[in-house]
């Protein structure tokens, strides 16, 4: 332990913060701006990091810097290390009024309007200095959670690695929606085959290009013996709804979507899937285990869960 302490005493821990920013930004100039230092100073910091780790760490490219294998290894473990240091230095009682932390979450667009808007309003009142960043749902959020790019993710995966905490948010019953006045809304009974006669629109999931991804809707339709390639895909729910409002396109989503007061007067459920429990879509709230002892993260998580519970 004495040798370890002597070795660590020669290290400037600020270098780890700089390395974290460089790994996130992949650009020396932007990293300098974030850390409020000049670009030459950032370049000197990078050289100190190279000396510390005895590795080039980054190579310059036409668009920024590209990490070496050593840097990628550090990227995997650095967020947990910095989070542990932050917990040590912030052991006092958590006060949301003075908290200046930022939180990032990926969430399906169809849930975002009902969750993020009231959450933002609450945070603006109770924790006015907290920064909230939202991104669209990811087909593979695990790498981003591990790297610290995401703090939380709402996801549908069932095979969740042990290094992540996963809380079930409930099971969503899927349904098909149409605008009010759509030809199907005047039928007394609507079958899935009736729906398949119309075009569909869909919400896009940001895919990890290194992995094949089949969405839960595609899996569900395949089990019903049908398939339908969407006419239009977008990550913007509002754009999707506008297209539905001005066409006969249909949309598949969770039945709770229609609870949105902005939608209840414009759209109607025309078909509900009758599926066994094992085939229903279950949503999970994911976080890396490194944040389970962070008072700020757990406070934020509690507020997020309160908003989600209001939907069920």
From TrEMBL:
Keywords: DNA-binding, Transcription, Transcription regulation
Protein species of origin: Thalassotalea psychrophila
Lineage per the UniProt record: Bacteria, Pseudomonadati, Pseudomonadota, Gammaproteobacteria, Alteromonadales
Family assignment from sequence similarity: Belongs to the LysR transcriptional regulatory family.
Domain named HTH lysR-type: residues: 11-68
Family matches, as Pfam families: HTH_1 (PF00126), LysR_substrate (PF03466)
Transcription listed as a keyword: yes
Protein name: LysR family transcriptional regulator
Statement: the UniProt record of this protein carries the keyword Transcription regulation: yes
InterPro entries on file: LysR-type_TF, LysR_HTH_N, LysR_subst-bd, WH-like_DNA-bd_sf, WH_DNA-bd_sf
């Amino acid at each position: 332990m004495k040798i370890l302490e002597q070795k660590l005493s020669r290290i400037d821990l600020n270098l780890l913060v700089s390395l974290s920013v460089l790994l996130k930004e992949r650009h020396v100039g932007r990293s300098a701006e974030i850390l409020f230092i000049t670009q030459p100073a950032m370049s000197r910091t990078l050289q100190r990091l190279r000396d510390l780790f005895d590795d080039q760490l980054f190579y310059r490219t036409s668009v920024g810097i590209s990490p070496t294998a050593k840097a990628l290894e550090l990227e995997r473990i650095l967020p947990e290390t910095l989070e542990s240091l932050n917990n040590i230095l912030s052991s006092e009682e958590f006060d949301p009024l003075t908290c200046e932390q930022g939180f990032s979450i990926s969430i399906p667009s169809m849930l975002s309007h009902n969750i993020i808007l009231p959450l933002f309003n609450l945070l603006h009142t109770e924790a006015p200095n907290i920064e909230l960043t939202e991104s669209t749902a990811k087909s593979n959020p695990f790498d981003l959670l591990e790297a610290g790019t995401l703090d939380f993710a709402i996801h549908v995966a069932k095979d969740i690695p042990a290094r992540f905490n996963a809380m079930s948010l409930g099971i969503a019953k899927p349904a098909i929606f149409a605008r009010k006045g759509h030809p199907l809304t005047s039928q007394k009974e609507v079958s899935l085959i009736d729906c398949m006669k119309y075009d569909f629109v869909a919400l896009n999931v940001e895919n990890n290009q290194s992995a094949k991804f089949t969405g839960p809707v595609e899996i569900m339709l395949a089990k019903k013996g049908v398939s339908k390639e969407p006419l239009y895909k977008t990550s913007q729910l509002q754009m999707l709804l506008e297209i539905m409002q001005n066409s006969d396109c249909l949309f598949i989503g969770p039945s709770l979507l229609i609870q949105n007061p902005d939608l209840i007067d414009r759209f109607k459920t025309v078909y509900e899937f009758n599926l066994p429990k094992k085939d229903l879509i279950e949503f999970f709230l994911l976080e890396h285990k490194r944040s389970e002892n962070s008072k700020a993260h757990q406070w934020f998580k509690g507020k997020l869960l309160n908003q989600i519970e209001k939907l069920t």
